[in-house]
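Feature request, filed as a ticket because there's no other form

It would be nice if the structure record came with a short human-readable summary line next to the tokens. Right now we just get the raw output. Example of a typical job, pasted below so the devs can see what we mean:
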Amino acid sequence: MKPSCPPDPPDPSGLSQAPPAPRWLDTGCRPPQRLPDSVEAAIEYVAQALGHPVYIRWTLAILKRGCPSLADAKHEHPSVFALLLDHDAAVEYWERGRLRAQPETVAPSAAMVLERVLRQHRRRFRLAPDDEVPDTSLAMRHEVAEDAALKAAGVEPAWLARAGRFASAVALTNTLGVADDAQAVRLFLRERASHSPHTLRAYVTELRRLAAWCTREHLGPFSDLTRQDLMAYRDVLQAARAGASGTVRRAAPASVSRALAVVSSLYAWWHRTGYLSVNPAEGLAAGRRARMTWTPVRFLSTAALAHCDAVAAGDAPEDVPSVIWARRRAIWALYRFAGIRLAELVWNEALALPRIEVDAARQWTLHVNGKGNKVRAVPLPSTCLPALRAYRRVRGLPDDPPPGEQLPLIHSERGRALGGSGLYDEVRAVFALAATRLPPEESAMRAALEGASTHWLRHGYARTLVVDHRVPLPVAQALLGHASVQTTAAYARTDGTQLRDFVEGSFPVNPR
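Raw output as currently delivered:
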């Protein structure tokens, strides 16, 4: 493939006359540093820091200097070339997650584009204060966020702001140095769950569930619950209940195990730090047994996945803009062929993850931040690259991510990173479209597609590795980011054919 024509440095026309840029600070550097004073230099700095163009002014002369021929210029910069046929100058500028081109007479100014990009990345770039006093509000914001998370989840700090019968009032043994459950919960969340927003959300959800049950049963606070109380709570979690349609439903063993694990962790930590004189939750959770007995059941058949792949590879529906369809295809390709969790494709600006690296052989590797803040690398198969490259092209980016590129893999229509709910909706849209394109006799497949989600694609990825291609379990565990190889091995239990093949191969029939 012919390399892109390298653009000349931004034409100073329209830049040097711009007013000086506001004093911005790049907090992504260690130590943080101020951006250059001039708009031109600041644009060059930000483009290098983010790994994509910010503002480029083009004339026909500049375009000719950067490309061997006009044919190459037309091929590499079709939008700019078309504009220069009717206008003296054109501008390419970054807006809402992609590179746009307009005549210079109607394009926004360089200073305006720069400020928009900086504000879009406001977690990294901040207006520099007049003095150099370091920002000491981080710990305060973190503590407030924990309280806000509890309130948003339904656990009122006021309900927890008291101590139960098992709370220790002896300062010599109470190493937390707090006198009520609200403060003790805050310290627990800070130490055990603050390193990952997903872990914090899961812990708060389970504490909310326990608090709601305590309120209904007129019990509490947490430090007042007896072992009998917690056993009764476990029975409630495991009990069958009537669903909205009248059907009897029972919580999945993994869900019960997760809820009890959080509760057990809270009480064990409180007891270990001396806040509680006893641990009423000792032995309450059976996490190991739950892992040993867990078996994934949410699968799509090979035929259903192939049908979805064909739909995603086809033309965009009439009511879907081409940019949105290209984005949807890229999202589908990543979840389908990387086996990642939903949250692992959500942009983390602090870590600049997820990101894609391309080696000298043009092989792509996806780097994601998994559970427990563990970064892992997932090689991407060649079959998913066309969709990813096509999406990059409609964003005005080169086919292959250059070294140092730091921008969200998936952008929203507002130009920021697409969040978890948006990613989920895009995958569900592929499932829904695939369901509508099935013949009437495929009712079972249609029902499966209508109920499928991103995690079904992860299960399918794991099953392909473990069952279909018999990838060694430690390798599959590393690709999937499982903490325990037992979780990976559970996929082998979903298909008895493999076990039978092993047995038959081990004990062949001796011909007479």
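Something like this underneath would help us a lot:
Confidence is low (pLDDT under 50) at residues 6-14, 16-21, 131-146.
Residues 197-216 form the longest helix (20 residues).
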